[in-house]
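Predict the 3D structure for this chain.
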Amino acid sequence: MSVTTLMSRVQAAVDYYIRTPNIFTLMKDSEYDLIFTGESCAYVPALKYKKIHNTPVVWSVFDPITLVDKAKPGSLVGKYPWFGKVLELHSNIDKKNIQKIDKVIVPTHKMKKELDAFYGIESLVFPTAGIHAEQYFTDHRELAKKRLVRDCNFAPKNNFIILVHAHFQPHRRYEDIIDAVALLSPARRAKVKLLISGNPNFDLPYYTSIEKKIKELDLEETIIIDPKYKSPEELVGYYQLSDVFVFVPIEQTWGLAPFEAMACQKPVILSTGAGCAEVVKNEHDALIVPAMNPQELATSLEKLIGSSKIRRQLGKNGYQLAVSHFNYPKIATQLTQLFKKLSA
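Done. Predicted structure below.
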């Protein structure tokens, strides 16, 4: 991550705190039984409202501003020690605020352990990121094919398509996926197309480094990058058109895209760095590989390329997991029960 990108994020955080009074102004004259916050710092105006009205506050946190990632390879504070000092100051000041929240909910047991120890709280493991399963049932493959021809000069035909979809950020480890494709046997690689879909604006230097790597490995005919905005229908078409979806970050709090791919009955490869891997059974719902391990990823890709039976079974099991456990109606029902209990 570049210094420019980092500073833009610091500025966004500062702007949020500056705007906190405005957010509270929008809230203060209304009556609420409970306030549910989802932004990283949204509990600040919520707690101000609670102080006046004694209204319970729930914070659903996916990307906490804490020091929990201090020792992890590739972390921001590892690369920029001064940023670690800023985070330490912020976190220690904010600790008392977070302890006033009635219930903090987190997506994984790993995050619960880290946040509870750091803040001295008792959080609840409750993933709130899910899917609208119905939107993946309509066939949008032709829409995706037209887009690929128009924007990428690629007409899919008898290709094995590996799909990656996420913003270009260093922790997503696109380089590991590219290296894994380079490690495939020549016969496998000849039929493979790696389609990378994602917004490059979160870290343009990283995006540029990925383009450079593709050229250096002479994989320009194998790898297709689509950095432009996609409509929801076009994105669903990409999932449906693919043969396997890959998501192998070094550190990701959760990860919604794998469940979107599962909703399209596509086999998924996850890394141990993806938080959502905690709820996935290896070799049943998906294949799980060590983070930052292109060789293991290449082995898993070879396995899926070589067996349509394994792909179908993983796709079927993943679909059942995503639709039955991570659909929004179920999540909403569970949230409602929690809200009623806290506001009683």
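The mean pLDDT is 90.
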